[in-house]
């Protein structure tokens, strides 16, 4: 049998010999190493060429993106300015705003696009800056102190801006003198609208879109910039302009304003001294290429390593050819030693059932040495087949395996005078043509496993009998206890309704109500044991309905108030306002809350506090937490107390009472609702038990109109 630890060790030894010069390479091996180096170099050259082509494609795609986007944004700005110019022309000719423009500037074609209104207002302004007539969003009475007012004073055609209005918005204005010379027509443009439009373009975090004038003053830009916020002309010296005959230009290279490579397209807006500049950082364009570059480098490195390892292994195989015969003989000796050292019965048979090889346990079972067994039919020996029936079954099993099938069965044998059960496997071994050449027989002693299975079956029968007895006992006890409890509940109901006259003090009415609630709660608790049995058997069925969790919490708080007052513990409820409804079994929810409140009150010393909180979680689920300032739970007991009949401390039942079922039932009832129960506690610092319900059990909030919020 081959030693699988040898190749790695031999490879390391071969490599050490190669490094020390003790191993001389043949010409063939040297040629193969040279070929390997050439192949690996080819891998890297191909990878480098592919990466360069991919980088060029990415940059070209970025240039096309800037060209297309700049064309669209230039058309947007041109359309808005043309519409504004036409409106100004009509106002200049009439000396007033025409009636069809007084209604709403948003009705002008091209004045609104995407992120908001572009043309804020149309004004007729007198030379002193007073507004004679206005239409649009910004109702102004005077432009005194603004760039448009200066244009109105001179009565010239002008583009004024950018300037900031008192409200904080950035504006620009187109100014045209009236034909009668009595003032000017002004179209106020919202520059913030262009900034919002540019900000919606997905061009990368380090890229920017600019709208600026011939003087380099920026009118609008797409991403925040403290420099531009403080000085709109800060980049005037580096922003590109176009010569008189150019309408667009594509740029690439190093950007001195930001210290990194960039590509972009600058385009003139119609024939106006305005430019739209889409500048994309090379890092944004090549973000995907950077990721692919490292992936390609790692892939090429991995292929190079694999090819190198395969070549080294091939050279190692050439070096081992001279020792193949000796290694095979050594492997045969090790295989035979392993064959003989196995505790299992193992043997090799020919397809016709003749013994070819046996290990020592097989010879011991047959009671004969290997020399007396090899060459004879396997079913002829009584140690392996003690009866004629077993011998015939053994022969048939060998025949099935000889046909190419895996055979496995159990049989009885006598070993050392004791009847043992054996698991027998007969595996066929095929040659290259698919013919069966040898059969491998293995036999394992499974007597202990069979006996363990019989004991397990007997124990299972006993457990089922005990479970049936437990169910019968619980059914009987629940019936015997329900009768007096029903009487208590009935009499307290009569007292609450004062059927035979008033009770006297109002406290008696409250006491009767608490007696009735406590009796009902006790009746529910009697069902806990039955519920535990149902939960363990998976037969508990929920009676679900949409309920108000705040009402259920308040009801449980009222029931817990009596023992809390007796123990000097304050019980409070702090629920988020407007809790949505919950799809749950009301009795199960109350049972969970009452168990948690009872535990919190029980383990909180006098002067302590128990608080119930409820609210929605980030995932839409509902969380109800019961927090106390009690004795707390040790860390080693947190996992144990959720199991039935378990307490955090063996002294707790004597000091505080309880059966240890409450938390286990709470956990299982919460799990039936698809939720979870968690406990966070520290000795001496109190305990927080949180019950979480999934979002699909929580009603969606409803808006005032009746639709989901």
Your description of this structure?
- The chain has 709 residues and is α+β, with helices and mostly antiparallel strands.
- The protein is 46% helix and 22% strand.
- The protein is built from 18 helices and 24 strands.
- The strands form 6 sheets. It has a 5-stranded antiparallel sheet with strand order 4-3-7-6-5, with helices on both faces.
- The protein is flat.
Question: Main traits of this protein?
Answer:
five-stranded antiparallel sheet; disordered N terminus; alpha+beta; 24 strands; 709 residues
Question: Short summary of the structure?
Answer:
With 709 residues, the chain is α+β, with helices and mostly antiparallel strands. It has 18 helices and 24 strands.
Set out the fold topology.
Elements: H1 6-20, H2 27-94, H3 99-102, E1 112-113, E2 116-117, E3 119-125, E4 131-136, H4 147-154, E5 158-164, E6 170-177, E7 184-190, H5 191-199, E8 208-213, E9 218-221, H6 226-230, E10 248-255, E11 260-268, E12 274-281, H7 282-285, H8 287-320, H9 324-341, E13 345-349, E14 355-358, H10 360-366, H11 370-373, H12 388-402, E15 407-415, E16 418-430, E17 436-445, H13 447-497, H14 506-537, E18 544-547, H15 549-566, E19 570-575, E20 582-585, H16 586-602, E21 609-616, E22 622-628, H17 652-656, H18 662-672, E23 676-682, E24 686-693
Helix pairs in contact: 2-8, 13-14, 14-18, 15-16, 16-18
Radius of gyration: 46 Å
- Strand portion, in percent? 15-25%
Largest sheet composition: 5 strands, antiparallel
Average pLDDT metric: 79
Helix content bin: 40-55%
Low-confidence stretches: 1-8, 105-110, 650-658, 703-709
Global outline = flat
Work out the helix count.
18
Distance between the ends: 73 Å
Q: How many strands appear in the DSSP assignment?
A: 24
- Structural class based on helices, strands and sheet pairing: alpha+beta
Largest sheet, spatial ordering of strands: 4-3-7-6-5
